[in-house]
Amino acid sequence: MKKTLLHTFILIASLSFSLAQAQNKISMTNLQCEMLNNPEGIDVVQPRLSWQIKADVNDVKQTAYQIMVASTLENLKANKADLWDSGKVTSNESVNIVYKGKKLGDRQNAFWKVIVWTNKGEIKSDETAHFSIGILTYADWKSTRWIGYEKLSKDDSVSQYSRLSARYLRKAIDLKKQVKSAKVYIMGMGLYELYINGNKIGDQVLAPVPTDYTKNVKYNVFDVTAQLKEGRNMLGTILGNGRYFAMRQDYKPYKIKSFGFPKMALQLFVEYTDGSNEVIRTDETWKLTTDGPILANNEYDGEEYDARKEMKGWNTTNFDDSTWINARYVQEPGGFYEAQMTPNMKIMAEVKPISIKATPRGTYILDMGQNMVGWLQLKVKGKSGDQITLKFAESLQEDGSLYIANLRDAKTTDIYTLKGGGEEIWEPRFVFHGFRFVEISGFPNKPTLDNFIGKVVYDDIKTTGTFESSDATMNQIFKNAWWGISGNYKGMPIDCPQRNERQPWLGDRTTGAYGESFLFDNQTLYAKWLDDIKYSQTQDGGLPDVAPAFWRYYGDNVTWPGTYITVADMLYQQFGDAEVIKKQYPSMKKWMTYMEENYLKNDLMNKDKYGDWCVPPESLELIRSKDPARLTDGQLLSSAFYCQLLGIMQKFAKIANAESDIAHYEDLATRIKKAFNAKYLNTATNSYANNTVTANVLPLAFGMVPENLKEKVFQNMVHEVEVTKNGHISTGVIGTQFLMRTLTNFGRGDLAYKLASNKTYPSWGYMVENGATTIWELWNGNTADPTMNSQNHVMLLGDLMIWYYENMAGIKSNPENPGFKEIIMKPDFNAGLTFVNASYESIHGLIKSHWKKNKNGLEWNITIPANTSAVVYLPTTDSKKITVNKAKLEKIGIKYKTEGNQQIVSLPSGVYTINLK
């Protein structure tokens, strides 16, 4: 279990300084440590350190750094780097610097700071950052037993609609000395809340993140020094079901995994001021009850809470637990124990409802105004025994009642029973809902908007991107994308948040993860998900369509499991993360070999499962098209995609020091291209297969078209989009992943813009015009068969968000220098927009691109982070028409050149206003 590999754990310090140019002095302020996850308890012994330099002057380049790491804060402040002193290292690298100091052991504290030298001077600060090592070996948990209660209570059931009450546990501890420091390490399956002396520890919800618990189990770590006192203390936990106690037991058991009853393992390490230590662990002395107020909690069906059964003070020392039983020792989950290196979920925002209306049925319909993911907090007064039912849905039927057919058999209902005696405020703990509308029944008086607050729940990760343009439809699509992406971040990227599915489908994120990375700091989320995929791999190399494999779907296709490789490529491109590739490469190679040996026939990949999923159908009532002219050959899809993956694997092999693999990948790709063109390319019509847009866009995007035919094939594809389909989308999940960028890269950004701004079916704008506030699962999600029309999916975004940023805003990381160390700024100014204002918080710092056309030409405001540079493309051959910060281009001493009909300008870091007449 011990981790020696590098992990995607990165500490980021933000160094801010200003330069008084007249005196040529440097001053520093505001050294901050921004953690990508909980710094208390990481399980890697060589974390990577990163910092950002924030400057108010241009052309700042780091020339050297010195990292100092100490075991105590006092040592660090005294410049006693007893763990690691890197010395002065000549380097311009400021991200992913590998710790190379003394070996870090269990629960080791580490305090660090960095000195930076730049071409503008030296940067020092007295501020520091901190991390600590977790529990590195399985043996260190050996004295800690898993405890729980593996029986049903009287109102529990195991069925298609399983019910299981929450488990409440408590343990009194006596601390006979003054506490110097204390940390708690907890694994609570499936979900937990932790309390000390009546206070909840942490602001996380729905913790920990889900995994296949037979493969790996995540533990969370909290510093609880401030919560403990000398004398008697009380530890308390509530265990919910989560993904551990499966919601649909005895329902398709061949498909749906279940792991058992909720259980817990906990260790509390206490250090006293006299230097002695004590460890408190879970054992049979803990007390337990299932007779608490949470009667049932089920992710699909909701939470039932009876406030009359509340146990006041149950998690404090002043409580009589004589009716509670002793917890039982139970079998461990089976997976090995890992520190959770990605944030937990959290209540990230609140939404106030916009209307509440009475119905003829005596109920009320609450409208949140936004399709959101989370739950509803209610405030109410009533009699003991009054029962309020909250039923959640995404939309309404024509008669004003909830539309629930698309939820399938998910009940999506919370029930609250009042205790009476005054105002009561309640919200659930162990469920989430995807909803805009709530039907309220049983409310003891006439409810008002003030009785309800929507709680928005997703992973505690930062929004990193903003986008605004001259097109209102595109702006609303961006908002819809933000809401859809955030709502489906649930410790893993799921497909939808509302119906009886909510699964981490690989195919939804093949390219989607790339686009999402511009909106959210999703690096650790996707690094964790790659581990989920790796752990789900079969011994012979197969990968599932869903990972963690909560559903046993192993279809052996290419386009879904290939996400394993494309997401790793995204992490490298966007975050400069080469270590994740080194870590995952052996499993990726194993899958590529597995597919080659089992399904490559005559140099074509002879296996596909889903086709170009969700092509706009010929009838608005259909889920899937039945017209062969709209469908793309599955062998074409899998062969083209596998060929593209071979190209990525060549890059990965070099990064992973597996250069001996490259020749095989190159040879195989060459053979597949030849066989692919021999079978599918029609040189008479300059088209592939049956001439769907997807059939043509894939070989164009993947570089498979013979050089002399590229333009002809592209023009043929343009005709299909522009004329045959009347400027509308005709691609499904696969084709849409490459459509927008390919159109723009071949010179038809205007056509891509038309697709992006359309308001008629099928288009993203059609969703907006029909009231969508997230992205639908289907292009015709308002009319199709209700069994499959989730109104909050992200898979049909394809490469749209990438296109927004890279092609419209002009914010792209150079693949040759990834992680935005060098930025390519190349907007398509002639696509149809008149202004774009976008920003992206990269790992190196904030990038801004704000351009607008006016009567005098083009004005473009650019921000390039310190210690990076940008290659800026301007649409003119005449350099004399360009001014930078009001100075003529040729007079400011920067490199530029003419290439085709563009000026290419190399800019160092800084803030610039570029004007083009």
Automatic annotation (TrEMBL):
Record-annotated Alpha-L-rhamnosidase C-terminal domain positions: 810-885
Keyword field contains Signal: yes
Keywords tagged on the record: Hydrolase, Signal
Alpha-L-rhamnosidase six-hairpin glycosidase domain sequence ranges: 463-808
Keyword flag Cytoplasm: no
Signal peptide range in chain numbering: 1-22
Protein name, UniProt field: alpha-L-rhamnosidase
Taxonomic source organism: Flavobacterium plantiphilum
Lineage of source species: Bacteria, Pseudomonadati, Bacteroidota, Flavobacteriia, Flavobacteriales
